[in-house]
Specification:
The termini are far apart. By secondary structure, this protein is an alpha/beta fold. It has 14 helices and twelve strands. The structure holds guanosine-5'-monophosphate (5GP) and manganese (II) ion.
Length: 336
């Protein structure tokens, strides 16, 4: 285990540092990783961000993005960097299974492992932990890691601020979720003061879709949405032919589940998609309904109370039926 003094001593001289985050990275995963990268490059460290898989185009503009390595595309180089690292930062995840086969490489690496995360139930693989489930985003924790733990607010420059703003904006669903506290807004104000251009970041993330993506969204809402009024639940089911037909790319499905949740009575929304190797579920809920419990108990997943995910190796329709069979158990919570 590292304490804050030994962590500061460790970072006082140039080190070989790897940053990694969960597979299929979202805005918070990329924002917190590249944000911390932009902070540490100012101190002369040898730094590399390695993502387990690719990530959407609408996240590929952040400062430092050109230097990001994707493990599945540069496996040998990534493995060598992980084995050789002095420090590995694990951002926006807390279980090594979330970084696929990179997990065992990170576990075996000699590096100090530092976890910065806001998910429940962390696995015990780290040497230093900056972890708070009440944080709205890992990027919020990266900010407090730099400002409070390392006491280095002056190095939060425009690039750092831009990345961290992106992480907080995306994970808080544009500052809408209940964990977007006044403290979060103060952090965001600091980030804007440090150079983050809020309206421009919003444009780059939310107004950069392809025509196909919008037509795919229309298809999901018109043809794939099933509303179950007796359970205040809405399910969008997408098969692999739809993905091919609309040429759906990484990230194009993100956020579609929120349209199902936008119906007034709905307390639980699911987006269930047939990927090439497995069925992926994204669950969202309102209020205190525990979407993460369903993912954890039935779909080898987890997440937050209002936003969770999981997977299944069963055929698509079976997964949908399985979810429907679970709903009666939660009826009381769903119809209150
Ligand atoms: P999404 O539906 O956007 O994939 O994920 C929503 C939330 O659930 C995110 O916070 C994500 O980290 C978490 N999540 C998604 N899939 C999994 C999973 O398979 N396992 C765990 N533990 N968390 C997941
Ligand atoms: Mn996050």
């Amino acid at each position: 285990m590292l304490d804050i003094t030994s962590l500061n001593n460790l970072l006082a001289h140039p080190k070989k540092i790897v940053f990694t985050t969960h597979h299929k990275p979202d805005g918070d995963a990329m924002g917190s990783s590249v944000g911390l990268y932009n902070y540490l490059i100012q101190q002369g460290h040898h730094t590399t961000v390695i993502t387990p898989t690719d990530y959407p185009d609408f996240l590929s503009w952040m400062p430092g993005n050109a230097e990001v390595i994707i493990y599945t595309e540069k496996t040998a180089q990534s493995a060598a960097l992980i084995a050789d690292a002095d420090i590995i930062f694990c951002l926006d995840f807390n279980n090594l299974s979330r970084i696929n086969e990179m997990g065992e490489l990170v576990r075996a690496a000699k590096a100090y492992k530092i976890m910065i995360d806001h998910h429940l139930e962390p696995e015990d693989f780290d040497d230093f932990r900056h972890w708070d489930i009440n944080a709205c985003a890992a990027a919020q924790l990266v900010y407090s890691f730099i400002v409070d733990v390392l006491d280095n607010k002056k190095l939060v420059n425009k690039d750092v601020a831009t990345c961290l703003y992106t992480g907080i904006m995306t994970d808080s669903a544009s500052f809408r979720l209940p964990n977007t506290t006044s403290a979060v807004h103060r952090v965001v104000a600091d980030l804007i003061d440090a150079g983050a251009v809020n309206w421009r970041i919003h444009e780059l993330v939310y107004n950069s879709a392809s025509e196909n993506r919008l037509r795919f969204l229309g298809h999901c809402l018109s043809n794939c949405l099933e509303v179950l009024p007796e359970f205040n639940t809405a399910i969008i089911t997408v098969n692999k032919h739809d993905l091919e037909k609309y040429d759906v790319n990484t990230g194009d499905t993100e956020g579609i589940v929120n349209y199902a949740l936008s119906i007034a009575s709905i307390r639980l929304a699911a987006f269930i998609v047939e990927r090439s190797d497995k069925v992926k579920l994204s669950l969202r809920s309102k209020g205190d309904f525990p979407a993460n419990e369903i993912c954890k108990l039935y779909f080898s997943g987890g997440g937050h109370r209002n936003a969770a995910g999981g997977v299944s190796s069963a055929p698509l329709q079976e997964v949908v039926n399985q979810l429907k069979l679970i709903l009666p158990e939660y009826k009381k919570l769903l119809i209150q």
